Amino acid sequence: MSDFLRSPASRTYISQRLRLHYVDWGNPEAPPLLLLHGGRDHCRNWDWIAQSLCDKWHIIAPDLRGHGDSAHSLDGYYAMECFVYDLAQLIHQQKLAPLSIVAHSLGGNIALRYAGLFPENVRRLVSIEGLGDAPAVVAQRLMTPAYERLRIWIEEQRSISSRQPRRYPSIEEALQRMMQENPHLTIERARHLTVHGVSQNEDGSYSWKFDNYMRFFPPVDISQEDKEQIWQRITCPTLLVYGKQSWASNPADDGRAAHFSNARVSLYDNAGHWVHHDRHDDFLAEVTAFLGGD
Question: Model pTM?
Answer without folding.
Answer: 0.97
